Amino acid sequence: MKKKIGLLLAMLAALVMMVGVFGNPTSAQAADSSLAKIQKKGVLVMGTSPDYPPYEFQATVKGKSAVVGMDVKIGEKVAKDLGVKLKIKSMSFDSLLVALQTGKVDMIISGMNPTPARRKNVDFTHTYYKGGYEIVINKTDKGKYKNKDSFGGGTLGAQTGTTQYNAAKKQTKNTKVKGMTSQSDLILALQSHKLDGVAMEKPSAEAYVSNNKQLAAIPSNFSMSSSATSSAIAFRKGSTSLVNKVNQTVDQIKKENLVKKDYLPAAGKYLKTNTVNTSMGHYWKAFLTGIEYTLIITVCSVFFGFIIGVLLALARLGKGNFLKSLLRWIATAYVEFIRGTPMMVQVMFVYFGLGLFVNLPALTSGIIAISLNSGAYVAEYIRGGINSVDIGQTEAARSLGMSNGETMRFVVLPQALKNIWPSLGNEFITLIKDSSIVSIIGVTELIYQSNIVRSDTYRGVAPIVVIMVLYFILTFTASRILNYFERKMQHA
After folding, report:
1. What is the pLDDT at residue 274?
2. 207 compared with 68, residue with greater pLDDT
3. Which of 2, 110, 138, 400 is 20 to 30 A from residue 317's alpha carbon, by CA?
4. Phi and psi (nearest 5°) for 242?
5. Environment class of residue 194 by beta-carbon count within 10 Å: exposed (0-12), middle (13-18) or buried (19+)?
6. How far are the Cα atoms of 114, 187, 198, 413 from residue 220, in angstroms, in the given order?
7. By its UniProt entry, which CDD domains does this protein fall under (predicted)?
8. C-alpha–C-alpha distance, residues 92 and 9, integer Å
9. Which of 330, 368, 328, 333 is CA-nearest to residue 348?
């Protein structure tokens, strides 16, 4: 599944590049304006994947969850030197490059290695940090594993889209390599013995081990180039003036050794703060925020999805002149296409693809994508409900002098709605759960919030149990409400 997602993101990135090349012939001439545009806008949007301590991770700061870490400190320094404000946008690591190319973020600071393959698509600054790789294992296996060559017949995990993932694929023998989008997911899989080890950068490995007594770290012995073990800031291709300006900041950071002297120690303090109180009750605000966004997405998607579904169903039932036939063909094609593609791809397309033309917020993009998806399914429910109404009802209404529109509105649709209410209720329940998909673009619903708690506390199972219970409460409550209205309609 992760490989498919990575392939889809790669294809989307290629499409973005093609549009940029053929749709914007003046991009080369506009390269020197990249710095001026940021300074004029007054805001620098930093893309990051906050599940990679001590580079970037979530912590509770003054009662609120915030993204912290040494990369955030670097981002703040860059923004200050540019004379602009820093805005942090969180998303999965393998979505960052696409977000940069589509203009969702202005730069990426996420422990990203400036490999030759990545340099073809984005511009990098000078490297600001050079580390290495280690493999995190369960402490009970410390005598069993010594390095990457010890995992023959076992399973080694790594974050998809990273250089350590590629190294694990190429430099291990008889070892199954499994990729996941989140470091916290990898650690959970390790502790539940789904993985035998997790390859990650040395500072991150040390952060997890120092905060979890059940884990240990061993040398990886990966053979890596200098670029694959260094971190740099990524900017959109052609941002020459912006990169040159930021290089001055990076060079100052290295000259004054700010990463080791200030930024890493500051990150370490937040790591210790996270483990002071790791009870789930301590994070009730995070879960409450997740419920709020889950309900917003669900209610809005149900409302707009129902409207779209009614229009599509009526279009598919239309017969007669050329216009009605055309609308029927369009509606049929839409329904088949939406039902034939994964919702996850649709969410990414709305957020990243349409982002080339309209800069939609993540929440808005998620609502649009889920509404469009729901509309296709609702259309089929309504079409089936309309066809289930006896033709005699229509004939009786027309004999009383009612027009086609009045017949549909006052006679057919009310009866159809009564027939399809259980199906519509099921769609509503499904949307509550499907709203979790929008977490991949950074919408702070329940799944996203659970990942924050897992990153904060280094506890893998407890947050999952909490959101399972919360999802059940939401769906059970919604089911009881829908059943109440169903009984009311049956007695009407």
Report:
1. 65
2. 68
3. 400
4. -70, -45
5. middle
6. 20, 17, 10, 65
7. TM_PBP2
8. 11
9. 368
Q: Are 158 and 177 in contact (CB under 8 A)?
A: yes
Q: Are residues 72 and 88 in contact, defined by beta-carbon separation less than 8 angstroms? A: yes
Average pLDDT value over all residues in the chain: 86
CB 109 within 8 A of CB 76: no
What number of other Cβ atoms are within 10 A of residue 336's Cβ?
11
**In this predicted structure, which of 22-36, 203-217, 280-294 has the lowest mean pLDDT?**
22-36
| Residues 6+ positions from 192 with CB-CB distance below 8 Å | 460, 461
Comparing 402 with 21, the larger pLDDT belongs to 402
Strands 215-219 and 133-138: antiparallel
What domains are defined for the chain? 2-129+229-276 (3.40.190.10), 133-223 (3.40.190.10), 282-490 (1.10.3720.10)
Q: How does pLDDT run across 450-459, given as a tens digit for each residue?
A: 877 877 676 7
Q: pLDDT digits over 115-152, tens only?
A: 888 999 999 999 999 888 999 999 999 989 999 999 99
The mean pLDDT value for 82-109 works out to 92
Q: Between 18 and 300, whose confidence is greater?
A: 300
Q: Which of 26, 82, 23, 75 is nearest to 48 (CA)?
A: 75
Q: 335 with 375: CB under 8 angstroms?
A: no
Alpha-carbon distance of 161 to 181, in angstroms, equals 8
Written as six digits, the tokens of 195 are: 């993985």
Residue 409: pLDDT band (50, 70, 90) is: confident
Provide the Cα torsion 247, 251, 254, 256; round to 10°. -130
pLDDT category at 478 given cuts 50, 70, 90 is very high
pLDDT at 343 over 50: yes
